[in-house]
Input
Amino acid sequence: MKYIQDISWYKDGYLNSGLTKKETPHYSFYFQKGSLTEQDIKNIIDIKEAHYKKILNWLDLNNSRKINYYLYQSLKEKMDLMGDDSLGNTIWEELEIENEKTDSKKFEIHVVYNEKCKFIGEHEDTHLLSLPWGVSIYLFCEGLAQSMEDNFMGEDLHVVAKKLLQENKLYPLEWLCSNNNWGNVEPIIIYPQVGSFSKFIIEEYGKDKFKQIYQNTSRYFDTIKNLSEIERTYYRTINQLEFEWLSFLKKANTIEKIST
Output
């Protein structure tokens, strides 16, 4: 099946911006000469190569293609050169998947890296390296990426999710099963929420079940079909899974237990 990425905002100015290039076994890093990235590149390489191995080992997948990894000095520079206004994102543009083998037009990660924001966690790499599993709904796509990172701004996912629950800020999971509803969500809520939920169902029901639901749901299906696939895979509705997850978070000792 062929997929087209929704990147109407995309610019290709970064391709002709004179960036310095550094090759490693699994990445081609691109950055401005004289930047903090250039200063830290040896440490960045060690971190990213470790992330690469960790992610592929967990996914139980192989990858023979290098990731083109672009690091920008500021969000403004990133927006000016490639169009996106987030701290990090992946670009694959066009994708074909057959028997867990992929062929994509691009294989890129774009992130901001400066003194205040070093956005080089596992999140974006997970989006790219999990493409052989398909293009799931955001609930599971972002959930997998955040659970692989296993924290949000340095704090445990379940700890953050429990605080959001206590503040009555969590979004209904059934509502989040429709990608159309993600247009106005708050990043500081949504990422720890879906990361915590994905981590919970992986630990509760196993990686194989999560892989199955990831592969059987799609942002190209309607919401009713995706909800039915969830129920067919877990023998529970999304609301029942949500109840189990929230019950876990509500346990009096959840934060203390996780934090120790």
The mean pLDDT is 95. Residues 5 and 93 are 5 Å apart (CA to CA).
